[in-house]
């Protein structure tokens, strides 16, 4: 019996890593737009311009996000709220854990 690495599993793992990398680029773009919004008041317009650009659409697609107008609107709304991505993600994770704990206790 010969030992070998399953090529399919390896490729799937590489794909997941690439998606995570591009997702990090999307989060950085959101944080940049939030900073622009606080400094210049044009954050939602900046993220919309980026998301509609060729590069933005490509990054969103590589992150596993369909670059449609509904997504652009959601990105603009997120930037308009002014909550940095790290804070939003940690709060969301905390709320999810609390909800799971409450459901388990009930």
In words, what does this structure look like?
The chain has helices at 7-40, 43-52, 54-62, 69-81, 85-105. The chain has 5 helices and no strands. The mean pLDDT is 91. It is flat, with a radius of gyration of 18 Å. With 106 residues, it is mainly α.
Portion of residues within helices: over 70%
Radius of gyration: 18 Å
Shape: flat
Question: Given the helix and strand composition, which structural class is it?
Answer: mainly alpha
Strand fraction equals under 5%
Uncertain ranges? none
E-strand count: 0
The termini sit apart by: 51 Å
Main beta sheet strand tally, sense and closure? none
Task: Indicate the mean pLDDT.
Answer: 91
Instruction: List SSEs in N-to-C order.
Output: HHHHH
Number of helices: 5
GO molecular function: translation elongation factor activity
Keywords: Elongation factor, Protein biosynthesis
Organism: Roseovarius gahaiensis
Pfam family, one: DUF6280
Short overview:
The chain has 106 residues and is an all-alpha fold. The protein has helices at 7-40, 43-52, 54-62, 69-81, 85-105.
Question: Mind sketching the topology for me?
Answer:
Elements: H1 7-40, H2 43-52, H3 54-62, H4 69-81, H5 85-105
Key phrases:
106 residues
